[in-house]
Write a structure and sequence with these properties.
EC 2.1.1.320; Arg_MeTrfase; Protein arginine N-methyltransferase 9; signal; TPR_rpt; binds ligand 44T
Length: 900
């Protein structure tokens, strides 16, 4: 968002010519409305009404011309409500007015008004995919992702080839129907076990059933099929509820399962279900077991929706008169691990980035913390340990963290008020403590259970509780790790609090004195911690107290990807070299041109005479960094000397970190400005050069962490190019997309319900597969289970310095290096900062993940076959189709179609 915002200001004063709204064709009022059918009644002519319509239309046009969009919108509403027959003619200008007015309302924070306008617009144009899609964009920006995704989906259903909606939908489909639905439905073992357990319970007498969080309706249908007399199901997501209704109908159970669109916690007897049920089935569990609120749901269910449990006093009560839950309970396990991949996403590991010492940054945390009281933190994140690049080292044996009986309401209720329990874990491996990994066994009934363990053959992720302390603590066998286990806000929390060694206990969270040496774990970790373990330990111990901590520490929060970026030294070194080269070139050019006046910059003098590396003499070089989120690139530019850098870092806390780093690294205060503060402060804006071609360098953020090209990248590049001084540069100047052919069943299992066979005998796949998205994001290609069927091949080039030179379609030929089924084409980018310096997004130190296009149909290839990949980049979303090339060709033979 920031980028767009910054660019708004960037372009308005400088290249307004480029942005002047195009003249929208106004409806021709003299055109006669179409005649109705012969037998339809001709509406009575009403001269006063006609007069009003035509006057309002005129006013609407005038207001539009004057850019008074609010008034124009009201006039259009009036016109179109009074004279719907004008809809065809006025739709374009009406939409234009709506979008302009909505943008204004958005920037004024008038959110309710904004959505009211969309509601009114949709009353007039209920099937207008452009309006629906645009409303989705506003919803998305405001954080209503489910609703936003619903709008994109609707727009796409109305017009399947509408590129904007397609791009938006693909980006958010994961929120609408999360990917684990596919994994779950493809997990035959899991399906079968649930079915067996439900069937046994129903056959044993549980004949009234409630499925909490029914998803596609599968567990409810199992209960019905097993012979339950009454089955109810509830689902809080609107999209999933509608899907469940479709699925149940398609399986001939319409009316036999009552599906409610609500959260189970809101259900009441007899309002929603006529009487208490004898069985609750649910799979509302996430990798951390409790994250979907199962504890709260079950407490509520026992108190309001379920029959009383089978009591030990009266075991004779028949099962139909007693309540029970599937799953019956769970056992939670934990294990301490060393894992560089986790570490670099949660802690600052480097003492230097791009020539800047990082010590002054202060304590930086990722938003994942089990000890924090901060609302913006999550207690855990999730990963598939087996798929983490670089692997992990267990430091303890798996330990039993918790046993929970879902059939015991007292135990469920007591969980949150239960004392914090402490476990002492013998350390069995040598390494740095990076996280506690957690998984569980879900006991469906006495006989059957499912495990989400990292060693099991399952698709489930584990919960990761990263260590947030700034120290590096090398553990070794003989130590004891002390872990606290608690349950707060119905989340399970695990926290490593101390290490016991040689009879002493060292607390891990205590480093109150910021002047004490920080012990950064190092960018690549220490492959053999024992090498300098003693030195590390001494320094770690110097930071550790044995007495109680005296209160919360001050820290700044960075997103995990921002932290990984900060730890990415090759990234920053490349930028530093590329910036240095540019500045040197520009200096040379200036010295040839003569004195700085030759630049014609009308720069107001900087308030204080700059000191340090900033040369007060010549005009500075202006560098703008519009990276998303936290970035130190502007500061690195400023540290080059004779540079005035503008950062688009938005958060005050983040700006403070950059200021601290600037001070500590001898960068004069005035060499670094914050773009948004600048545009809000008119005085400061005046101090900026007024020349149009302002910037020596503009740094663009091209690739999202998830592995996709950033939206509107090429538009931004076009604008940025207009703002460069002669010899100035956009970083990067070019990005090249690479890909390869792979056979990966894993990707298929995550993208759609596979195979022709019904799922547990039910017809579910065609319904849920409507939500299949061809592009997978956030992949770790280095650990993805797949067979490579070709070498990597260049798929596409995006030239940011010459956006006209880009094409939208390209055919690429690639030779199969092995026989197999091509199921996907993973892709990544080489980001060229200049001719010599480039970065890959498929790299061990990278904060980027990779993405992949999953082919619509797998393509069988034999070794040596030539495959033609038709690659399309529409907006910034990529699509690829593959076919066998009958005639032999040369690797990488390319036919490109220049479109723009
Ligand atoms: N878990 C798989 C599936 N919901 C995630 O809207 C299982 C993941 C899994 N609806 C490890 C192990 C496993 N009332 O559609 C969602 C959600 C809905 C509710 C009504 C409620 N109280 C709720 C709570 C959630 O239920 C559906 C499923 S919840 C997510 C399940 C071996 N990791």
């Amino acid at each position: 968002m920031l980028c767009g915002y910054a660019f708004m200001f960037l372009c308005v004063p400088n290249i307004c010519g480029l942005l002047t709204p195009c003249v929208i064709g106004m409806p021709n009022t003299s055109t006669r409305p179409k005649r109705g059918r012969r037998n339809r009644r001709v509406p009575r002519e009403d001269p006063a009404r006609n007069e009003l319509v035509s006057r309002s239309l005129e006013s609407a046009q005038q207001c539009l011309f004057n850019q008074d969009y609010g008034t124009a919108f009201v006039h259009y509403l009036l016109v179109l409500n009074l004279a719907p027959v004008l809809k065809d003619f006025a739709s374009e200008s009406f939409r234009f007015t709506l979008f302009k007015w909505a943008d204004e309302l958005d920037s004024l924070g008038r959110i309710q008004d904004l959505f009211d306008c969309y509601e009114q617009a949709l009353e007039l144009f209920p099937t207008d995919e452009v309006i629906i899609n645009s409303m989705g964009e506003h919803l998305f920006r405001m954080g209503f992702r489910d609703e936003a995704a619903g709008h994109f989906h609707k727009a796409l259903k109305l017009k399947p080839d509408y590129p904007e909606a397609k791009e938006n939908f693909y980006r958010v489909a994961n929120w609408l129907v999360e990917r684990w639905h596919f994994l779950m439905l493809n997990d035959r073992r899991r399906n079968h076990k649930y079915q067996q357990a439900i069937q046994k319970a129903v056959e044993g007498g549980c004949n009234t059933v409630l499925d909490i969080g029914t998803g596609t309706g599968i567990l409810g249908m199992c209960a019905k099929k097993a012979g339950a007399a009454e089955v109810y199901a509830c689902e809080l997501s609107k999209t999933m509820y509608e899907l469940a209704c479709e699925v149940v109908t398609a399986n001939g159970m319409n009316g036999r399962i009552k599906i409610l669109h609500m959260k189970s916690l809101e259900m009441e007897v007899p309002k929603d279900i006529p009487k208490r049920v004898s069985l609750v089935v649910t799979e509302t569990v996430d990798a951390g077991l409790f994250g979907e609120g199962i504890i709260e749901s079950l407490i509520h269910a026992w108190n309001h929706l379920l029959l009383p449990p089978q009591s030990t006093q009266d075991p004779s009560r028949p099962p139909s008169q007693a309540g029970r839950v599937i799953p019956a309970g769970a056992t939670v396990f934990g294990m301490a691990v060393q894992c560089l991949e986790i570490r670099r996403h949660h802690r600052l590991c480097v003492s230097e980035i791009g020539g800047l010492a990082t010590a002054a940054a202060g304590e930086l945390h990722s938003p994942v913390s089990c000890s924090s009281e901060d609302d913006s933190t999550e207690p855990y994140t999730t990963e598939r340990l087996s798929r983490l690049p670089g692997g992990y080292t267990p430091l303890t044996e798996p330990f039993n963290a918790l046993d929970i009986d879902f059939n015991n309401v007292q135990e469920l209720e007591g969980l949150c008020s239960r004392e914090v329990s402490r476990v002492r874990l013998p350390v069995t491996g040598e390494g740095l403590l990076d996280a506690l990994a957690v998984w569980f066994q879900l006991h469906l009934d006495q006989q059957s259970s499912l495990s989400t363990g990292p060693k099991e053959d399952t698709c489930w992720e584990q919960a990761i509780y990263p260590v947030q302390t700034p120290h590096n603590f090398p553990l070794r066998p003989g130590d004891e790790l002390i872990v606290e286990i608690s349950c707060r806000d119905a989340y399970l929390r695990l926290c490593s609090v101390a290490v016991a060694r040689d009879g002493r206990e060292f607390r891990l969270d205590d480093c109150l004195d910021p002047d004490k040496p920080r012990n950064n774990p190092g960018p690549s970790g220490n492959p053999n911690p024992s090498l300098n373990a003693e030195a590390e330990l001494c320094s770690a111990l110097a930071c550790l107290g044995t007495e109680q901590s005296s209160g919360p520490r001050d820290y700044t929060m960075l997103e995990c990807a921002e932290m990984a970026l900060l730890n990415n030294q090759p990234y920053h070194d490349s930028f530093r070299r590329a910036l240095a080269k540019l500045i040197t070139n520009l200096k040379d050019a200036r010295s040839v041109q003569g004195p700085s006046q030759g630049q014609g910059l009308e720069v107001m003098p900087l308030t204080d005479p700059p000191s340090g590396p900033m040369d007060p003499g010549p005009d500075p070089f202006y560098v703008l960094d519009v990276s998303e989120g936290f970035s130190v690139l502007s500061l690195m530019a400023a540290s080059q000397g004779q540079v005035k850098a503008y950062s688009s870092v938005e958060k005050t806390q983040h700006q403070a970190v950059l200021r601290r780093l600037a001070r500590a690294n001898g960068v004069p205060e005035e060499a670094l400005e914050f773009w948004l503060n600048q545009v809000e402060d008119e005085q400061a804006v005046l101090q900026r050069p007024s020349r149009e071609k302002l910037w020596s360098a503009i740094i663009l953020d091209c690739v999202e962490t998830c592995g996709l090209v950033r939206q509107k990248l090429m538009e931004k590049a076009t604008l940025a190019r207009c703002l460069l001084e002669d010899g100035g540069q956009i970083f990067p100047e070019r990005i090249v997309l690479y890909g390869m052919l792979v056979e990966s069943d894993t990707l298929l299992l995550e993208s759609a319900v596979q195979g022709q066979e019904p799922t547990l005998g039910f017809n579910i796949a065609p319904f849920i597969n409507q939500f299949t998205v061809p592009v997978h994001v956030f992949l770790d290609l280095s650990t993805l289970q797949c067979r490579h069927l070709s070498d990597s091949v260049e798929l596409f080039i995006l030239d940011l310095m010459n956006t006209n030179a880009n094409y939208t379609n390209r055919d690429v030929k690639v030779q199969a290096s092995a026989s197999g089924r091509v199921t996907a084409v993973p892709f990544w980018y080489q980001i060229h900062l200049n001719e010599e310096i480039s970065l890959s997004t498929f790299n061990q130190d990278s904060h980027w993940k990779q993405a992949a296009v999953v082919l619509h149909q797998p393509l069988a290839v034999r070794e040596g076959d030539w495959v033609r990949l038709a690659v399309t980049l529409q907006k910034s979303s990529i699509s690829i189709s593959a076919s066998i090339e009958e005639e032999a060709g040369e690797t990488g033979t390319v036919d490109s179609v220049r479109v723009r």
